[in-house]
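User: Okay, second chain of the day. Same drill as before: sequence in, C-alpha cells out.
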Amino acid sequence: MWAAQKRWQPSMTEPTLLEPPSHPRKRVLMIAYEFPPLAAGGVARTVRFARYLPRFGWQPHILTASNPAKRARDATLLDQLPACARVHRTRSWEHHVPRDFLVRVAGALGGDRSRWREGLTWRLRRVYDPLALPDHKIFWAAPAVLIGVATVLRHRIDAIYSTSWPYSDHVAAVAISTLTGRPFIADFRDPWTQHICYGAQTRRAARMDQRLERAVCRRASFVVTPARESTRALRGLLSDLPREKFITIRNGYDPASFAGHVEPLPGFEIVHAGTFYKSRQPDTFLRGLARFFDRVPEARKHTRMRFFGMSLDSDLSNLPDAECVEFHGWTAHQKVVQAFRESSVLFLLRHFEARREITLPLKVYEYMASGKHVLAIQASQRELDGIVRAYGNATILRHYQAEPIAAALEQLYHRWRRGELGRRTPPAFVQRFSRVALTGQLASLLDRASRRRR
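Assistant: Same drill. C-alpha cells below.
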C-alpha cells in the first residue's frame, strides 16, 4: 500500500542516521506551536517526522513559537533534527506576554511579583478568553500566517503539514494554504471536538469549534490521526467528506532510542510515564502496592516504583510506602526511555471517563519496543486491547482496583525472583511501528498531495 515502506525496511537495532542519502528535492512547512525546547507529550511525533522525512526526499521547515508559555523543557530534542531542517520562529501574543512584562516592571519597582502575576492573570484572561477561538494559541497563529506565507514563497515550499494540539495550528495552515495555493495535511494527533476532555466554555464556542474543525478537514488534502478509532470517529462526524481523505498514521517508537544493550537494574523496578488527571490517578495503584507489601513483606526492600512526567490532581501525602515511590516530573525523553529499558515491569493505565476515548497513548509503542513486561489496566478499548494482546508479554487487568493490582504485583514479583521477567525480543509486528516506516507513510501522503497540485 505504501511505496515508501518498500524503500525502507527498519529494524529494532537500526543505527542513528540523521542525514538523508541525498539532498531532499521537496520541501514541507510543518506548523507546530509545540516544538522543542518545549517537552509536551505530542512534541515527539512532530520531531520524529521532521527527523526522518529527508530520507524520503522531503526537507522540513518548521514554523513554531519563539516565546511559548513556560512549560517543561527538553532542549536535547533539538539535537535529533536533521542538518537540513530549518526552524522558523515567530512571537506569540498570548496573555502571558503582557502579564510577564508588567510583572517584571512591578518587581523592578518593588512590588510583590507573585501577587501581581496572580492578579494580572485573571484580569487578562477576561479580555483574552472571549477572543481565544479555537484556543489561546490563536494569538500566535495570526502573526504566524504572515511568516508562513513568506516562508512558503521564499523557500518554494511544496506542501504544508499542521499538527494539533493546539488546534490553532490547523487554522493557520488553512490560511497559509489558501493564500499560497499549497496543499496541506492536517494531523489530529489529539482529537478536537471528540477529545475525551473537550468542553467548550460556551455554546457559541462549541459551534465555532465544530465549524472550524469541518473547515480544516474540508480544506486539507488528507486528515491524519494516530489511531484507527480516531479515524473512524472523524469519518462518522464528517460523513459527507470522502472516506479516503482520513488516514491513520500511528505513533511509534524511534529505533535509534533502543539501539545497543542496556543492563536492567537489579531490583524489582516498576515504571510509569505520562500524565495523571481526572479518573486516572496513581492513588489506587499505590494502595495496591501497599497491599502487595503486606502480603510479601520481603518485597519491600527490592521494589521501586518510578513515575515520570506526571501532574497530580490528588493528594498522595498520606499514602503508605512513600520510600519505595519516586515522582520525577518532566524528564528528558531519552532518560525516560532509559528507565523503560532498565525496568522489570512497565505500568500502563487508561482513562476511565464516561466519554469514550479514541486515542492510544504514545508510550505503548515504546513499552513494546523495550521488550519489557507490561502491566496494563485499561477500559475496554478494542484497538489498544488488540495491540497489547498481540504483544503478548503483558498482564491485562480490566478494573482499576487495589486488590487485583496487589495480586498481579505479587505474581509478577515471584516471576522476577525466578528470573522470568527479563527482556524479550518484541514480536515482528512491533517493527511496523518504527518511526521511520511511519514517516514513510506521511511522505507518501505529501507526495500524493503535491502531485495533485501540479
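The chain has a mean pLDDT of 81.

User: Thanks, on to the next one.
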